[in-house]
Amino acid sequence: MRITMIGTGYVGLVSGVCFSDFGHDVVCVDKAPQKIEMLKAGKVPIYEPGLDALMAKNVAAGRLSFTTDLAEAVDGAEAIFIAVGTPTRRGDGHADLTYVEAAAREVAQALTGYAVVVTKSTVPVGTNRKVADWMRDARPDADFDVASNPEFLREGAAIDDFMRPDRVVVGIETERAAQVMADIYRPLFLRDFPIVTTDLESAEMIKYAANAFLATKITFINEIAALCEKVGADVKEVSKGIGLDGRIGNKFLHAGPGYGGSCFPKDTSALARIGQEFASPQNIVETVIRVNEGVKSRMISKLRELCDDSFNGKTVAVLGVTFKPNTDDMRDAPSLTIVPALVGGGARVRVVDPQGRREGETLLPGVEWLDDPYAAAQDADLVVILTEWNEFRALDLSRMRKSMRTPRLADLRNIYSRDDATNAGFESYTAVGR
Questions:
Q1: Is 76 helix (H, G, I), strand (E, B) or coil?
Q2: Is the pTM here over 0.85, yes or no?
Q3: Catalytic amino acids?
């Protein structure tokens, strides 16, 4: 099957590469010439484990190509995926559909025959019907159906999520479109992965509801963590105890400095805005958003207390600034709140992150970037573990402590225990919920 993927951001590129690995003929389109030239040269503009090798494999097989020419890419395509950005709109928290609308209108003009136009971008409920309206407005005689196919990819594990998904969600209205989507996902259907076929609005809502629920779990355990600190409980034990309940599950119950990334902040904000728009307030989601911001502020207070109530003149080593490990994504990362507070308070901040420097150099001005956590800790007054990269899970804490001016450790991901820190000679230690 010939597939066009519009947008080579995180979702578009991963999806396009994986569809080509299914055996489909995929053309990825982007308006940014530099990005397309980079892809043609075999370079991946994002960090996602395994993506470069999988892309090279399918380019070599002749199933995957890249272009800036949308009309050429759409010509003869049976399915056209829109995977452009839907950033939060300034002022009202809603998803900005400017790029989706532009893509829909351009696709309508370029169609040479029947195709299913599939929205892969995360969009508010009702957007797919707007896509159909925009296309008919641009070209009344165009022959197409629309479909909603939200993505559920975890950064750092996106290829595995695509190839072995918990479920695939498809919103459609016609049998003709259903057959095209079935053909696209046939490799997964044959391996008995669940494919949920529903209406357009339900498919759109599933995406928002899923992310809002996961964000709620994270925020819930962070509030429990704050209470654990007051009453003397250990949030890791609490998480284990409640997570073993099959009705709850153990995922997304790890206390930390708050959620971030490209999805949860944007999608919770959009869902809250949709609720307001339809006079059906999403009170839980609105509270989650507010509490998550408070979690970041609480982390800053923890660090300040560990530094004798002042960052001024202190040297702080920050280990990890991406919003999670195995990605270079800095969007809405807790570090974007915490690190500027350190710098603004007069601290000298050294940062170590395996993949975060490319974006972080622009987003975190005034910090020093190093490659070695031990070098960052040299003569430091505080070490902060902010992202749980594997490289930071087996640190020689004794070695680190010996090189510090004032041995203090803030483990905001609960990698190490108090005993670990004490036995290594740290004089002060703080974690989350312990």
A1: coil
A2: yes
A3: 263
